[in-house]
């Protein structure tokens, strides 16, 4: 579902137009290069079962959050901390090692669909209050969704829910107009109107779009500094780039919230600690209450061997993630699909996996989607299934081609491994006569840069799916799908891929109805065709480890969050 710095019912194709899997070498089953398949590894939890209340959790991070505003967030780190201070109609409840389960949150149930599937109705629980004691209303939920339509203000607002609703022409609450896609007949009822039936709609309303926002407290872009709490904690202080303090929300009623145990008294975030320092502090247990949300637990390559030490292994949570990392080719600057294919074939993905810590931390995949998703069909690319470079084939493809001889690779500067990916890319493309320049991008602004005018020629990204990842659509549509009107590439489509025929097919698929398996096969088949144009290269399917302090309890690596699930942790004595 979400981007990691480390992401809706669907239609038969237009008459006479069908999608078929293209030819090409078939990917090997299981792990790409012969290593142990990470999808078979069990999750490891630390000190689970604790119900002790009290204490402070110290969260060490190498950079600030991209945003704390639920209406402007498409990021797993914000979703992780966000579940502490905001609630949504439904919630993706984490269980380490497996996709989350959708459960009711603000709503009393998972929603009631009309007989034709075109409306979904939600009833709010009784007794819901904001941090200031005022009631949470259905109108506040509607307003939270309305804000996400103001895309000139909120450039990173999630759009999957919006694309399923009826009001494509609405431009948010600041430009006026009547938002007809949601009705609120009373203070406790929210009714959504859909373009087409959408069987997986309960997963959509677990997204941050449905976090309630009181209209009177909306400060637009400044709302990130103090979003009004509807959850068990509220923001006591926030010094951008330095620190964040969450304290208990006295008006949160645990009787209304079966999903959050809210064990610690406080969460203290340090937002500017170097990853190498974070790793050393956690390994040495310098702060027994500490943990990190940084990818791969901020572990450095030189630290990996230390995980086997008995005093560290018992403090190490681990699990398979619903996250896959890819290398995106900017299709507006690298325009020829054959050139992109050549660059992809030249990559030594084994060397890239080593930048992640080697096979202990993941497998080399053949696709952004995987065979655990509903409707998966076999994906085909010319990439070597063992991750080896096909330099000879790459050179042949480039014969007679006019292609760029200088490219820029952008990477999130806080992580040494992402720079390492660029170093491998430099070496591989140099053999094709291409000079690759490495451009560090501040981690807190990374995806904002990729969405804007400064998007480099090549950039790494990751997509972490939650419970919605069970459907192929929820990976394909955000990452290579078109805009809401179908006329250009979508806002989270980092490679800026747009093909009149194939993107048009994805746009039509958004309006189709059918079972998740049936529709998933259509989305997966479309993805198979799109990948023949190489807008991106799959790099690593992630399995991660995260060391925590010796007093941290109930630590589990979230499948969706890609890091320690903050909603479950506590502090022991």
Automatic annotation (TrEMBL):
Matches recorded under Pfam families: SBP_bac_5
GO BP terms: namely: peptide transport
Q: Do the record's keywords include Phosphoprotein?
A: no
Q: Which keywords has UniProt assigned to this entry?
A: Signal
- GO MF annotations, alphabetized: peptide transmembrane transporter activity
InterPro entries associated with the record: Peptide/Ni-bd, SBP_5, SBP_5_dom
Q: CDD domains in the record, alphabetically? A: PBP2_clavulanate_OppA2
Q: Which residues form a coiled coil?
A: none
- Gene Ontology cellular component list: ATP-binding cassette (ABC) transporter complex; periplasmic space
Q: Where is the signal peptide?
A: 1-23
Q: Where is the Solute-binding protein family domain?
A: 101-470
Enumerate the Gene3D superfamilies for this protein: Dipeptide-binding Protein, Domain 3, Periplasmic binding protein-like II
Q: Which SUPFAM superfamilies does this chain map to?
A: Periplasmic binding protein-like II
Top-rank taxon, per record:
Bacteria
List, alphabetically, the PANTHER family matched.
ABC TRANSPORTER SUBSTRATE-BINDING PROTEIN, PERIPLASMIC BINDING COMPONENT OF ABC TRANSPORTER
Write the protein's name: ABC transporter substrate-binding protein
Species the sequence originates in? Amycolatopsis dendrobii
The organism's taxonomic lineage, starting at the top: Bacteria, Bacillati, Actinomycetota, Actinomycetes, Pseudonocardiales
């Amino acid at each position: 579902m979400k981007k990691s710095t480390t992401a809706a019912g669907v239609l038969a194709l237009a008459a006479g137009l069908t999608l078929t899997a293209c030819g090409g070498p078939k990917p090997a089953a299981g792990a790409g290069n012969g290593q142990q398949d990470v999808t078979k590894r069990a999750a490891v939890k630390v000190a689970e079962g604790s119900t002790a209340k009290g204490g402070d959790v110290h969260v060490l991070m190498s950079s600030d959050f991209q945003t704390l505003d639920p209406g402007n967030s498409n990021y797993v780190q914000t979703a992780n901390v966000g579940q502490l201070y905001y609630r949504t109609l439904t919630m993706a409840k984490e269980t380490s090692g497996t996709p989350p389960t959708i459960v009711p949150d603000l709503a009393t149930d998972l929603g009631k669909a009309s007989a034709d599937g075109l409306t979904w109705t939600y009833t709010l629980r009784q007794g819901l209050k904001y941090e200031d004691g005022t009631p949470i209303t259905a109108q506040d939920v509607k307003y939270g969704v309305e804000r996400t339509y103001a895309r000139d203000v909120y450039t990173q607002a999630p759009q999957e829910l919006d694309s399923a609703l009826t009001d494509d022409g609405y431009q948010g609450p600041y430009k006026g107009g009547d938002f007809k896609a949601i009705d609120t007949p009373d203070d406790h009822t929210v009714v959504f109107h859909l373009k087409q039936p959408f069987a997986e709609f309960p997963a959509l309303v677990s997204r941050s779009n449905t976090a309630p926002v009181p209209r009177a407290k909306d400060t637009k872009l400044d709302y990130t500094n103090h979003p009004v709490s509807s959850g068990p904690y509220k923001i006591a202080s926030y010094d951008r780039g330095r620190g964040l303090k969450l304290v208990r929300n006295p008006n949160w009623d645990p009787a209304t919230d079966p999903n959050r145990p809210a064990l610690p008294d406080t969460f203290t975030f340090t937002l500017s600690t170097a990853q190498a320092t974070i790793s050393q502090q956690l390994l040495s247990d310098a702060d027994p209450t500490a943990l990190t949300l940084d990818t791969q637990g901020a572990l450095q390559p030189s630290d990996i061997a230390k995980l086997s030490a008995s005093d560290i292994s018992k403090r190490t949570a681990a699990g398979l993630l619903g996250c896959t990392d890819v290398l995106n080719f900017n299709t507006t600057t690298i325009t020829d699909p054959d050139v992109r294919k050549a660059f992809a074939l030249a990559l030594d993905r084994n060397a890239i996996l080593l930048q992640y810590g080697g096979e202990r931390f993941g497998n080399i995949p053949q696709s952004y989607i995987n065979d655990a998703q509903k409707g998966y069909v076999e994906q085909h690319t010319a990439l070597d299934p063992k991750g080896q470079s096909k330099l000879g084939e790459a050179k042949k493809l480039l014969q007679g081609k006019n292609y760029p001889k200088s490219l820029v690779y952008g990477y999130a500067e806080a992580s040494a491994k992402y720079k390492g990916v660029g170093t491998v890319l430099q070496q591989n493309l140099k053999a094709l006569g291409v000079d690759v320049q490495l451009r560090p991008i501040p981690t807190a602004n990374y995806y904002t840069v990729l969405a804007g005018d400064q998007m480099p020629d090549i950039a790494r990204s990751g997509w972490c799916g939650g419970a919605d990842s069970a459907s192929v659509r929820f990976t394909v549509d955000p990452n290579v799908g078109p805009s809401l009107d179908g006329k250009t590439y979508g806002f989270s489509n980092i490679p800026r891929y747009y093909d009149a025929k194939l993107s048009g097919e994805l746009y039509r698929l958004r309006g189709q109805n059918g079972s998740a398996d049936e529709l998933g096969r259509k989305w997966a088949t479309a993805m198979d065709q799109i990948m023949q144009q190489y807008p991106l290269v799959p790099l690593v399917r992630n399995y991660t480890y995260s060391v925590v302090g010796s007093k941290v309890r109930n630590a589990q690596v979230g499948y969706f969050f890609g890091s320690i699930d903050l909603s479950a942790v506590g502090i022991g004595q």
